[in-house]
Amino acid sequence: MPFEELLEVEDIIAQISDLNVRNDRSAAQIKRNILGSNDLIDTMEESDWEEVCQSMISTALDQGEPEFISDLIVALFANHMFSAVMSDELMSTSSKHIMEDDDKPIPALLSAILCAHWPRQYAKAFDNVNPILYTVVCIVKGWIEVVGEDTERYHKEEPKPKYQTREDLQNQKSEDKEEIPESPTKERIVEEPEMVNLCALALSDLCDTAQKQLWVNWMSLTDEIYQCIKPSITHNPNLTGDVKARLLDTFIQMSQWTKHRQVGIKHAGVQTVPEEDNN
């Protein structure tokens, strides 16, 4: 099918979400039509991109097309306004998923975005490099934090003993003599058990849909999820039996991912999100 120039925002939305239009066109054709309509894309305002991004997310969640949409996100990523709006929409939709307990497959969309074919130089979760990946990683880390902090109320791992040299011991003695003011303890918000369970399920769903590709592309993030899930299964009384069973299945799967290390692992960077002082 030849290239179709799109003249209105509604035409882009129709290409993305209208099944009557999509049935006659391949995903590659739709992407080519959208990217080729430069005259339209270059003049789109923020409100136009909001409509398009909402349509894309709706298509991913309601029509079961997370891979198609994640591929389109990568293609449109170079447009800075699109990236900013899509980041906001993903954050809003993910918050709604947890706060309102909707049954939309948000984790499947986020895993598709994380494991999409990003150009190597943009496959990093830094706000100034790739705000979309940065937002997705922040969302996942938020789920980890909710589950992890709730588990720590009931179980705190003892730090492993560290081998100390004579110089280390001497430095420790000199430090003990100095009066070091105690750092203020960060006030933790105790979340409702329902929210903790929803965040735990979201982590499980994310891993179940991404499978080993999550570890291949995001080793550090996967390790954080693994370390969060492990104690929550055995020590968090707020998690229901069904949720713990799901987490156990996920934990067993994750344990298998690292058994056969493959060559060519991507080392994607993750920007550290500064902690805010809630005091």
Shape: elongated
| SSE arrangement, N to C | HHHHHHHHHHHHHH
Number of helices: 14
CATH level 1 name: Mainly Alpha
Tell me the CATH topology. Serine Threonine Protein Phosphatase 5, Tetratricopeptide repeat
* Weakly predicted, low-confidence segments: 177-183, 263-268, 274-279
Question: What key phrases describe this protein's structure?
Answer:
279 residues; mainly alpha; elongated; DUF7627
What does this structure look like?
- The protein is mostly helical.
- Helix 1 runs parallel beside helix 5, helix 6 crosses helix 8 and helix 9 crosses helix 11.
Please describe the topology of this protein:
Blueprint (H helix, E strand, L loop, with lengths): L8 H9 L1 H4 L4 H10 L1 H4 L4 H17 L3 H11 L3 H20 L6 H9 L16 H22 L13 H12 L15 H18 L1 H6 L1 H17 L5 H17 L22
Organism: Caenorhabditis briggsae
InterPro entries: DUF7627 (IPR056044)
Pfam family, one: DUF7627
Short description:
Helix content is 63%, strand content 0%. It has helices at residues 9-17, 19-22, 27-36, 38-41, 46-62, 66-76, 80-99, 106-114, 131-152, 166-177, 193-210, 212-217, 219-235, 241-257. α5 runs antiparallel to α6, α5 packs across α7 and α8 packs across α11 (193-210).
